[in-house]
Amino acid sequence: MVTVAVVLLPGLALLLFTMTYLEDRLFGDPGPPRPARRRHLRLLPGGGGHGSPARRPHPAEQPMPDRDAA
Predict the structure, then answer these.
(1) CA gap 26, 15 in Å, rounded
(2) Are 52 and 42 in contact (CB under 8 A)?
């Protein structure tokens, strides 16, 4: 019985250390926020930025002359 305890003790200690480390990383306080770069703040495509590409209409907004409502 002592032999089993001696064999299992290093594995259980490693498991305890690993779980403690992971809990601290997952549930700990987040670090300070990083400053955002200008190019990452363009939220709307074609939203008035200098040199932004023209907005393409959504396929549902394009008229379909060959289809009737009936």
Answers:
(1) 16
(2) yes
Contacts of residue 54, defined as CB under 8 A and 6 or more positions apart, other chains included, come to 46
Of residues 46, 42, 49, 69, the one with CA closest to residue 57:
46
* Separation CA 50–CA 36 (nearest Å): 19
CB 46 within 8 A of CB 52: yes
Has this prediction a pTM greater than 0.70? no
| pLDDT averages per 10-residue partition of the chain, 70 residues | 92 96 88 72 61 56 64
